[in-house]
Write a structure and sequence with these properties.
It is a single chain. 51% of the residues lie in helices and 20% in strands. By secondary structure, it is α+β, with helices and mostly antiparallel strands. It folds into three domains: 115 residues, no CATH class; 115 residues, no CATH class; 118 residues, Glucose Permease (Domain IIA), CATH 2.70.70.10. The strands form three sheets. Strands 3, 6, 7, 8, 9, 10, 11, 12, 13 and 14 form a ten-stranded antiparallel β-sheet that branches. Helix 3 runs parallel beside helix 4. It starts with a strand and ends with a helix.
Length: 386
């Protein structure tokens, strides 16, 4: 059946021969079978689809007709009910026949609704409830996704704000650290200045060794908050340690009489050896004489306790203050003393007035500073700055 075949074409006295192999014949037969099968299947599906569409169209028409009938009955009942209430309002209904008729019509409409619901699958209560539940679940899912996206966006914004705040905090800490370092340098320079005078008396003032803090020990661990940012946390530790050091030194330096006790003065006699103003003989001067106008206010430059406020021979009216840390100050030749023995004073408090009492040639303040009982040059303390 599928042996090799030849097809001969003759035209214009010439003949052409075409050979058809067995394989080509089998391929053509299979192709014809496939095309025929596809055509038959397409024809069948077309007819079947047409039948399905026709059936659904009839169902749709029936549903529409039932809906129209239902709406017609509903309108009629609505009109009858309106008429019934009108009759009730007018007092013309006195029997129950009309009410029974309306009930029957309502039952007919209810039966039609039930029948339509039973016949149409899309109106079944179970499927309706299932679809409603599914729809609610999808809405909940969409809402949850939306809220999650909003939260993620807010978290991203918060993270950016936190980074910005951390950078700002780092900048603030750097500035605070620089200010603390500047303050510490200023204090150390003041200590270095007064030590130039103290060292001449073979003594040395160490703020750490001479503080009045309670005796205690152990490594210093600043009480600072811990943050997750390692760089910021390290900076916090450093700055808090600097602030603690500055606070400690400031507290110690409150007991060191740095500054001038009289706002306006000129140095009339310096510290050390001098010629006595009365007998012109060589003498030792334990302080400095700060000439000033009588009545000018005299202030203490450090906190402390008044240990003397009375007449003291050649010193005249004199006030003596113990500042602690080994420091004492004496204010002599006062015109008037404002403080009494036992009183506590703070830096800047007025303790008296410039005068010329006792062994004095004119209005001035004799100012002495003692460190551990040894007089030191007050001018180093007056020139030092905090």
């Amino acid at each position: 059946m599928f042996s090799n075949k030849e097809i001969i074409f003759r035209s214009g006295g010439r003949a052409k021969v075409f050979n058809i192999s067995s394989r080509l014949q089998m391929f053509l037969v299979v192709l014809l079978i496939i095309v025929g099968s596809w055509s038959a299947y397409s024809y069948y599906m077309y007819n079947k689809s047409d039948q399905i569409i026709s059936f659904k169209d009839r169902e749709l028409d029936e549903t529409r007709d039932a809906y129209v009938d239902l709406m017609t009955d509903f309108v009629a009942i609505h009109r009858n009910i309106s008429s019934m209430f009108t009759l009730i309002d007018e007092g013309q209904m006195q029997d129950e026949l009309n009410i029974s008729r309306y009930k029957q019509q309502a039952q007919v409409v209810e039966e039609k609704i039930r029948k339509i619901a039973d016949e149409q699958e899309w109106l079944k209560p179970e499927e309706l409830e299932e679809k409603t539940t599914l729809r609610d679940a999808l809405l909940q899912r969409d809402r949850a996704v939306s809220e999650r996206n909003e939260l993620l966006a807010k978290i991203e914004i918060l993270e950016e704000n936190i980074k910005s705040l951390e950078e700002t905090e780092m900048e603030i800490l750097n500035r605070v650290g620089k200010l603390s370092e500047k303050e510490m340098t200023k204090i150390k320079e003041a200590v270095s200045t007064i030590n130039k005078s103290i060292k001449k008396q073979n003594k040395y003032f160490n703020p750490l060794a001479n503080s009045k803090k309670d005796s205690a020990g152990g490594a210093y661990v600043p009480d600072v908050p811990v943050v997750n940012n390692a760089r910021l946390n390290q900076k916090l530790q450093e700055v808090f340690a600097q602030i603690d050091d500055v606070s400690y030194y400031r507290e110690v330096m409150k007991s060191v009489p740095i500054g001038k006790p009289v706002w306006s003065y000129w140095l009339s006699s310096s510290f050390g050896h001098r010629s006595d103003p009365f007998n012109k003989k060589s003498a030792t001067h334990k302080g400095v004489d700060l000439a000033s106008n009588k009545g000018n206010k005299v202030k203490t430059m450090a906190k402390g306790k008044v240990t003397r406020s009375s007449w003291n021979g050649g010193y005249g009216n004199m006030v003596e203050i113990d500042h602690g840390n080994g420091f004492k100050t004496k204010y002599a030749h006062l015109n008037k003393a404002y403080v009494k023995k036992g009183a506590y004073v703070n830096p800047g408090d007025t303790i008296g007035e410039v005068g010329s009492t006792g062994r004095s040639t004119g209005p001035h303040l004799h100012y002495e500073i003692l460190y551990n009982g040894t007089p030191v040059d007050p001018m180093a303390f007056i020139k030092a700055q905090l």
